[in-house]
Amino acid sequence: MVAPSDPRFRSTRHTHKIVFINTTRVTDFLAENIPVVTFNFTDFRDIINNGDDTWLIDVIGHVIERDALRELNKNGRSHKLLEVGLQDLSGNKLKCALWDKYAEELSTHLINDKPDSPIIIILQLCMVKSFNGKNSISNAFHSSKLLINENLEEHREYREKLMMQAGTFSQSISQISTHRSVGISDDLLQTEHMTISDLMDCTSERSVALLAKVVEIDCESKWWYPSCSTCFRKVDRNGVQFYCEKCIDNVPAIPRNRIQVLVFDVTGSISLVMFDKVVTEIIGKKVADILGDLGKVILNLICL
Ligand SMILES: [Zn+2]
Q: How many domains, the chain?
């Protein structure tokens, strides 16, 4: 069966996907011209800055820190979780969460492999996750492929470059600190700092931290917008429903915050928009809770 691709976590760039259903028949076919392993690696920097979860991606890196293998209960089922820190050849660092068989496999390597040799992993078709404004990767249920220190050309090439950088690899894998949740202050410390005048001159899209004082809240502009319940983009009215451009479909709409503020620092002033996550963190309430039933009424009225 052929169906349109999902809005998130697509495994290919194709607009459609093949779905295997009960009546699908599969037969063996020798297709020598289809390569068994191909990778299309995404840069750590892209993942850190953009965190686009439209597609499943491939990454390559080496383990620099690890947490203990943990057992968690999720929806009544027991799961294994191993969180590690990866680094790429440019020194960018990325958190990676591996579940169940993937966690066990890497854990075995961490125990058995030579301590002075790097553990290079390729995670094919993994998910980009965003939490507290930080992007990380994780295996995509059972569809990811984890390749650790294999004799593949990609592993060999990576190892050679890594060895050339470090002379000999001497970096040991450290334990991830026990602070599990990343607070705003930690987050800010790890993000590039800018002043308002830096922001004005900045021509590239990236995440930065700005320390500024709010001097005015724009009460004239709308403080919330109807958003897609799946991807949180702004949705447009489509007859009696709402249409999401990213999901390419009519979707249920939920209200989300957007508050325009004027801020200043010693270098100038600028108008910024605070979106839902930030506003909720400041006022401690979700817009849907503030609007209550009124939200549904207003969303219905927009549709009329
Ligand atoms: Zn959407």
A: 2
Question: Could you tell me the CATH number of the domain that includes residue 49?
Answer: 2.40.50.140
* Ligand 1 center from residue 19 Cα (angstroms): 22
- Tell me the CA–centroid distance for residue 12 and ligand 1, in Å: 19
- Give the Å distance between the CA of 156 and the centre of ligand 1: 40
**pLDDT (tens digit, 9 = 90+) per residue, 192-234?**
788 888 888 888 777 788 888 888 888 888 888 888 888 888 8
Check whether residue 203 and residue 287 sit in a common domain. yes
**How far away, in angstroms, is 11 Cα from ligand 1 center?**
18
Ligand 1 center from residue 141 Cα (angstroms)? 22
Mean pLDDT over all residues of the chain?
84
Q: For the segment 244-279, what is each residue's pLDDT rounded down to a tens digit?
A: 988 888 888 888 888 888 888 888 888 888 888 888
Residue 241: closest CA among 229, 231, 258: 229
- Residue 232 alpha carbon to ligand 1 centre in Å: 6
State pTM to two decimals: 0.56
Q: If phi over 0 gives left and psi between -120 and 50 gives alpha, with beta otherwise, what is residue 160?
A: alpha
What's the gap in Å between 52 CA and the centre of ligand 1? 13
- 13 CA to middle of ligand 1, Å? 18
Q: Are residues 15 and 148 located together in one domain of the fold?
A: yes
Q: Quote the ligand 1 centre to 235 CA distance (angstroms).
A: 8
Which position has the higher pLDDT, 129 or 290? 129
Over residues 181-195, the pLDDT tens digits come to: 444 444 555 567 888
If you measure from the C-alpha of residue 166 to the centroid of ligand 1, how many angstroms do you get, rounded to a whole number?
A: 44
Does residue 272 form part of some domain? yes
Instruction: Give all strands (DSSP E) within the chain, no chain letters.
Output: 2-4, 16-18, 57-66, 70-74, 77-87, 93-99, 120-131, 134-139, 145-148, 174-175, 193-194, 209-210, 213-217, 224-228, 236-238, 241-244, 249-251, 253-265, 268-275
